[in-house]
Amino acid sequence: MSAAAPARGLLVSDVDSTFLTQEVIELVAEHAGVRDRVEEITTAAMRGELDFAGSLRARVALLAGLDASVLAAVREVLVPTDGAIELMRRAHDAGWVTALVSGGFHEVIDPLAAEVGIDHVVANRFAVQDGKLTGEVSGPIIDGEAKRATLEELAERHGVDRARTVAVGDGANDAAMVRAAGTGVAFRAKPALREVADVVLDGPSMLDLWPYLEGAPVA
């Protein structure tokens, strides 16, 4: 049996405030009554003022004791960014591999990604014991370097030349991934990411990325 042909390209998107209009951990924090504090830490991390891994641990710690059933409620209120789902579906139909790489959480993101038909999801996981969040992250934290490594690993796995990779994000923790991509896109982004991106887009629609998927037909 012959090996599968390489994909036409690789499109990797951040999730919070990029593929989604919201920050997932802030939606969870609202159920714990600590949204304001979590928002403060998130904002500082996205500006590059705090180490992402440390900031994530601090935010998740504030959720200790929260019933894990709230994650289903959070999934029900997710709002994809205008054009995000259509962009992923167009890319997939054009022969591109699609991926979400997130500092957010599998428990919330996975069902939507499956519905859209996204090929890969890499994210964090909440540690849960006796049906409640422990306040810790389960497994390695998906920080900026993990995002970069994921882009490189997926490109190699699918036989995609680095020049045919597109990565899009909004915050400082997306900078390494955006720099590593053939085309790095800052979408409605913080200054820390805008400074290193090849392309800066201010939206409102993620379909504005479509012309940058080299080789894909422009509608």
In short:
This protein is α/β, with parallel strands linked by helices and 219 residues long. The chain is 40% helix and 20% strand.
Task: Please explain how this structure is put together.
The structure is a single chain. With 219 residues, the chain is of the alpha/beta class. It has one domain: Rossmann fold. It is built from ten helices and eight strands. It has a six-stranded parallel sheet, with helices on both faces. Strands 4-5 form a two-stranded antiparallel ribbon. Strand 4 (126-129) and strand 5 form a beta hairpin.
Main features:
single chain; 219 residues; alpha/beta; Rossmann fold; six-stranded parallel sheet; two-stranded antiparallel sheet; 10 helices; globular; amino-acid biosynthesis; HAD-like_sf; serine biosynthesis
Question: What does the secondary structure layout of this molecule look like, with pairings?
Answer:
Elements: E1 9-13, H1 15-19, H2 24-32, H3 35-46, H4 52-61, H5 70-75, H6 84-93, E2 96-105, H7 106-116, E3 120-124, E4 126-129, E5 132-137, H8 144-157, E6 165-169, H9 175-180, E7 183-187, H10 191-194, E8 199-201
Parallel strand pairs: 1-2, 1-6, 2-3, 6-7, 7-8
Antiparallel strand pairs: 4-5
Helix pairs in contact: 2-3, 3-4
